[in-house]
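Run folding on both entries below.
>entry_1
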Amino acid sequence: MPHFIAPAHFDALIRRLSGQMPVVMLETQQNGDALVAAGARAILQCRDHTATFHKASGAITRKKQNPWHALHDFRSEWSGQWMFGYLGYDLKNGLERLHSANPDPVSAPDLWLMVPERVLRYAAGSGTLDVTEGPELPETWLAPPTNLCATADAFRFEIETGTETDRARYLDIIRQAQRAIFEGDYYEINLSRQLSGTYEGDPFALYAAMRARGPVPFGAWLAFGDFRVCCASPERFLKRAGNRLISEPIKGTAPVAASDAENAQIAAALLASEKNRAENLMVVDLVRHDFSAVCAAGSVQVPELFAIKKFGTVHQMISTVTGELRSGVSSVEALAACFPMGSMTGAPKISAMRDIEKLETYRRGIYSGAIGYISPEDDFDFNVVIRTAICRNGRLFYATGGAITADSEPAEEWDETLVKSRALTQAAVSATALQKR
């Protein structure tokens, strides 16, 4: 039976559940609709080439197992069930002859997926909460909390958004990448940097503040173990609906201004930018190439090219690629064929990923991977993990980056990373955070 609760009450429920069990919430923040997985019947967790399968009867660890093979086995065992979680960027090592040796202060699993005990759907417009899968919610969970106010001041963090040393190093790796581009190693590469700091309080308050500052279509909240993931992603990695495959790559970013007139000018300039159009087209071509490995010949199309959309703090250039899956292609095969998202690597993908490992100073982990679900019908929808804060044991991590081409201006690329970090830094204002600049 449906339950009727206000958005603040729903947020309080998610907080309550997150303190008791693993929770994954996938939220279309622009209208407040959410799909929630709560509790775990089974969990697959992979790190490098070690896979651990958790279920009621106990845990089984397999060493020297390709994580994609482990995912195939997990999906086969739990066929016809919901799965929620994430695919981390470093799963690339299970697809190609690549490695990840950079420092990893987050130390998250490369893959974390659960078969949930309950699946809930929430429609903010009507205030309707339905249990799609699993037992009904206990009345004690649904009882209104004493204080419905999701206090933004319940979270404090201190983080450096960019020192002069950070800036100098980022400009240097861009110049190194451009030399590799001139030498023909690749023609586009995504380079990022990781911000870090300390926090105290409830990370869900940060998630709520990020959502309030800039609602996005692919927001996500994850709570498992001692990890809390606050994701405000505007980008879809990959969706399967029946045999139809859809990707919506983003390349091209500009800041949002105070007035409608200024924003119209900024959006027009972004659309007219040859550099941004070229970057976007490179990724579109890469996605089309990935689709060709699993889609029927002649079915891959680009129904929308260079659309400009506004998401709170940024304007983005977004294109759409579609295709029809060949008969017999599984969801795991489709995900593997397209992973990771080309907008987060560059092109050609493998050579760009090799240099990402050389030029960046940290293991990406969850960042630039994908958060989402696989349905009982084997459909799926995964975002691209960007604009994402990862909180663990008093430490907060947030990465930003951008596409580098031969025409990139290093100083402008640095400024773009600052624009992209506004989802965090402006949420700091909402959360009355203590911020060090």
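>entry_2
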Amino acid sequence: MKQNIRYAAGSDVGRRREQNEDAGYASGRLLVVADGMGGHAAGELASSAAIAVMRELDVSLPEAGCDLEAALEGAVHEAARRLSELADLDPARRGMGTTVTATLWDGNRFALAHLGDSRGYLLRDGALYQITKDHTLVQSMVDEGRITEDQAAVHPRRSMVLRVLGTEGRAEPDMSLREADQGDRYLFCSDGLTGVLGPEILHEVLSTVIDPAVAVQRLIDLANQGGSPDNVTVIVADVVPPGEGEATIYRVGAGS
């Protein structure tokens, strides 16, 4: 039985940045968060260009029967090619890049593509699971047993990303295909949220705030109350029965 997703999305410039280099997109089939980097507005260009490519999936794919993983991975590769083209037009853009965490749904399953340190979480049966793995220096150090998770959270190089969508024209996203169960709740966000709020707070909000739009705003507000040194982008999506419909709210903070 095909299911729907009820979703909301929001983005805020945060407390210390002058512009918002995050970008996001949410629809009944596609959810994407991108966190740009590169300076001189190149980060904003990288994230928005990646989103522009990804959102084409909404109009180019048939309603059913497509290979979700292949379609989503192809869009990531096309986004990388687009960034390379933009850099060729202006050498100052060389080195710009963006994270990409994206899901493509068909009503029962979804493909997940992930590059960088934006994150995806699943709330199922009261438990919160991180379903993406950070492509960062500190995560590699944790994997090698050199530091603990607690040490990684305060490490001075915790923001160093090892894999992103960049201007070299290549992309190697983590890809997976997952089953969607009715009652599941998903959170996709930039590291501006998780750099401030720990999993306990994420779990509390996602578990207690029923309306996705209210949950999105609550998470952004809590990040800003915590000092929010980076832009904050949040998408919350619930798997709901057919006929319950969809809703989307996209809020952009002042100064973005």
